[in-house]
Amino acid sequence: MTTRTATPVGTGTRAGSRWLGPVLLADLVAQVGIVVTGGLVRLTGSGLGCPTWPRCTGASITPTVEQAEGFHKYIEFGNRTLTGVLAVLAVASVVVVWRFAPRRAMKVASAVVLGGVVAQALLGGLTVLLGLHPATVAAHFLLSMVLVVAAAYLWFARGEATVPARPLVPDLVVRLAWVTSGVGAVVLALGTVVTGSGPHSGDADTPNRFGFDPRTISWLHADVVMLFLGLVVATWLAARLTAEATSAPRAWLVVLGVSLAQGLVGYVQYLTALPEALVLAHMFGAAMLVVALTAGVLALRSRTT
């Protein structure tokens, strides 16, 4: 008679939950990555490399040799292809979160990521059909920032999958962190207006811009950045003076470091007439600032009992 070894209760769940971290990290990396590739599309003037949507041309889903768009078609199509990768990772995130992270906030965040990827695909198509209007381009970028926030939240809060968190600082410090993050969002929004008023339209032949003076908008953006930096310093000091654990002020020190680096890149690119490499670095820095802010807010609470 054959005997069957019993599998300990919960073993399958523990083994499956090991996928939670890797899947969520892959999703976060991909969300940041597509911001960079989207910037590459814009800076090379490849936004209309595939002049229609959802096909690349009127008759083909993929680029064709006969297209007049040259190398731009491959850059734009490559960025579109990455959306498919994001969709797969978003579905995988929903599966692992709903299976192994019963907390409601994490389930909602995973659904936001999945729904946002779909919305991004539709918004990207609308952007192409409207000839890269700066308003839709800005919305495309800002929605990406929302998805980076959601993906970063899932990654940094994965330790809260089954364990409730408790605050490590007074409520006033938490409110200050949220105000700082809100001003950071204003900085990002103004940054899209600066970009939409500058030379990098996303189309090499027919630039489509806002009607604002680039110099005026740039200085308005810089003024709000100064306010943001002051709030970051204040949040860091408040966390250092009141937090029960050193992880909170360390996280906000990272926010300060990323903010200063981002500000330096911003000033240098302004003074050097917006070279493409620095603009791309600035876009990557914006995504990393969002990740750092998310980590900073979450660091103000404990993930252990």
Describe this structure in words.
InterPro entries: COX15/CtaA_fam, COX15/CtaA_HemeA_synthase. Pathway: Porphyrin-containing compound metabolism. It holds the Pfam family COX15-CtaA. It is found in: Membrane. This protein is mainly alpha-helical and 305 residues long. The chain has helices spanning 11-17, 20-43, 72-100, 104-129, 134-156, 171-197, 214-242, 247-271, 276-298, and strands at residues 166-167, 301-302. It is flat and about 65 Å long. The N and C termini lie far apart (47 Å). Residues 1-13 have low confidence and may be disordered.
* SSE pattern, N- to C-terminal: HHHHHEHHHHE
Q: Round the mean pLDDT to the nearest integer and report it.
A: 84
| Terminal residue distance | 47 Å
Give the oligomeric state: single chain
Give the biggest beta sheet.
2 strands, antiparallel
Query: How many distinct domains?
Result: 2
Indicate the radius of gyration in whole angstroms.
Answer: 22 Å
Biggest sheet, strands in spatial order?
1-2
Number of strands: 2
Helix content bin: 55-70%
Shape: flat
Q: Which stretches of 5+ consecutive residues score pLDDT under 50? A: 1-13
The fraction of residues assigned to DSSP E strands is: under 5%
- How many helical elements? 9
| Global structural class | mainly alpha
Pathway: Porphyrin-containing compound metabolism
Keywords: Cell membrane, Disulfide bond, Heme biosynthesis, Iron, Membrane, Metal-binding, Oxidoreductase, Transmembrane, Transmembrane helix
Main location: membrane
InterPro entries: COX15/CtaA_fam, COX15/CtaA_HemeA_synthase
